[in-house]
Amino acid sequence: MRNLHFSVLIAVLSTFVIFTSQAETSKSVMTLNYLEGEMQVKQNGNWVNVQIGDKFPYETLVKLSGDSIAEISGNGSSLTITRAGIYSLEDLLNRKKRVFTSGLVAAFKNLYKYFRGTGRQASGTAMGVRGAAVEDFSSGMEWVSEEDSYLNEAEDLIKDGDFAEAISVLKEGLNSSKDPDVIQEYRYHLGYSYAMFGKNARALSYLSKVEADESMPYFGDLILIKGQLLMDSLNFKDALKLFNLYLEKYPDSSSSQLLYFLSGICYRELNKKEDAVKDLKTALKIDPTSDIGTAADKELKALE
């Protein structure tokens, strides 16, 4: 049975929007911080291409094309967009504010302590060796193989919290690798490191190129990290697919309460109230006294 590695939870969820009073009242300028692909904004009735560093008003209409990924910040908030379409930037930011309320974020921020307190083993690890069993960060980590010096070096850097340098090392290793399986592993680790570094769009860029496969030693981690990043970008449809993939294979794992809870939130945002209630009730039933159970109970009452 593969359980999730939860140390990434805080880093990912700490990037969720925390709107200040200034963000609620100010209509200031937004900045495009990251773009992979193509994005346009509407100016004077025309669609205009934008580049990293460009600024535009809070009320702007934006259009994302194909498989593009964009990250925009301003007004004390940030937003990642991952699905093609035309959006009101103001509407997206207001929706994100509503979805990720301070109470919900607070509940998530307690999860790391909650899961570490149970002494559960991770499904793999942030830097697991292909097919090898390794220990959680909380109890130390040992490499079983030294075949890849880049991954060994990056593992040490991640344990030290030096994600910027780990990213540099991993990119160098990725550029030198010709093995498709190893390339997948590098992409996962780069996505993990960027997520821990608070760079959500860059994290999704790498993780979107990794196909979830339960044979991966980091399968559970991939589901959790990518799913939360997709939720943060308001892409609840794709996040739900990932959560359901895990729950179909491991419905009774010690990690299932969190996945049922996240699935319930996704269903709620997709206007599927019956499914949302079902999964939230399942999360609540698993452990009503846990932080997740408390959060599920709160969400259920709000749906009544």
Question: What would you say about this model in short?
Answer:
This protein is α+β, with helices and mostly antiparallel strands and 304 residues long. The chain has helices at residues 8-13, 21-25, 89-99, 102-109, 111-118, 149-159, 163-176, 180-196, 200-207, 219-232, 236-249, 256-269, 273-286, 291-303; strands at residues 29-36, 39-43, 46-49, 55-57, 61-64, 69-74, 77-81, 85-88.
Overview of the molecule:
It contains 14 helices and 8 strands. With 304 residues, it is of the alpha+beta class. It folds into 2 domains: 8-13 and 101-303, Serine Threonine Protein Phosphatase 5, Tetratricopeptide repeat (Alpha Horseshoe), CATH 1.25.40.10; 21-99, no CATH class. A hairpin with a 2-residue loop joins strand 6 and strand 7. Helix 10 (219-232) runs antiparallel to helix 11 (236-249). The radius of gyration is 19 Å and the shape is globular. The two termini are 35 Å apart. Mean pLDDT is 79; it is low at 1-8, 10-26 and 109-147.
